[in-house]
């Protein structure tokens, strides 16, 4: 089968997978205002999507999160018609690597993952790398792999699930959402979920401390999924509601609100 035919099939499949599932429930744990006031450049925004491909990714990774975007600060010259700046860089199926406003995820379940103790010069390098990738294509080969999980078939062994996500084209100009961000952090390099190996410490000859030294091995960026930023020990999970100050005593419950409305109506009558 020719590359042209495969590309056409891939684009058609991408459009199919990018459609939202009818009746999918959307839940949000962050208000739009709280998210805007909390998120900052360098943060990874995880998203629980409601498209067909989102369902496949969540199944593959056994996670809530199906998409990841990187906050890179205001991107010069890129704004919405109403003036809202583009602050996210993300890879979207059928669209490639694009910039987006934060309002793209208003009313969507999200999570902020923030790298710990990242030096300013390294943050600048990560942001520059991500911005330079705007315009790159989405890896359509991964689309075929993900589509397999939406078709009737025998169950896929657990050991193959993550591996299926790493079957991309191998082209540096074709990416998926989590690999783009992982590659950006690896330029520094900043760890996400490295493999940890314990080796003898040459400076400590005691038997008790024989294997106390740890060496980190960077995994290839194509092996990362959105959930990895959530479970990484090197990223803080930032919750906007708590960051802005939470007082459970100030919460207005539905019954209290209804009583207040009834009391006001009675007073007015």
Please, could you describe this protein's structure?
This protein has 269 residues and is an alpha+beta fold. The protein has a single domain, classed as endopeptidase fold (from Nostoc punctiforme) (Alpha-Beta Complex). It has ten helices and ten strands. A six-stranded antiparallel β-sheet has the order 4-3-2-1-5-10. Strands 6-7 form a two-stranded parallel sheet. The longest helix has 15 residues, at 3-17.
Write the layout of secondary structure elements.
Elements lengths: L2 H15 L14 H7 L5 E4 L4 H10 L5 E5 L16 E5 L3 E5 L9 E6 L4 H13 L4 E2 L1 H8 L10 H7 L9 E2 L1 H10 L8 E5 L13 E5 L9 H5 L3 E4 L1 H4 L10 H15 L1
Parallel strand pairs: 6-7
Antiparallel strand pairs: 1-2, 1-5, 2-3, 3-4, 5-10, 8-9
Helix pairs in contact: 1-5, 4-7
Structure keywords:
two-stranded parallel ribbon, 6-stranded antiparallel β-sheet, 16% strand, endopeptidase fold (from Nostoc punctiforme), 269 residues
Task: Please state the overall shape, judged from the principal axes of the Cα atoms.
Answer: globular
Contiguous uncertain segments of 5+ residues: 210-218
Gyration radius over CA: 22 Å
Mean pLDDT: 76
Number of domains: 1
CATH topology: endopeptidase fold (from Nostoc punctiforme)
Amino- and carboxy-terminal Cα gap: 77 Å
> How large a portion of the residues is in β-strands, by DSSP E?
15-25%
Q: Can you give the helix content as a percent range?
A: 25-40%
What summary fits the major beta sheet?
6 strands, antiparallel
Strand pairing plus helix content: what structural class? alpha+beta
Quick one: CATH superfamily?
endopeptidase domain like (from Nostoc punctiforme)
The order of strands across the largest sheet is 4-3-2-1-5-10
Order of helices and strands: HHEHEEEEHEHHEHEEHEHH
CATH class: Alpha Beta
Q: Tell me which CATH architecture applies here.
A: Alpha-Beta Complex
In DSSP terms, counting alpha (H) and pi (I) runs of 4 or more, how many helices? 10
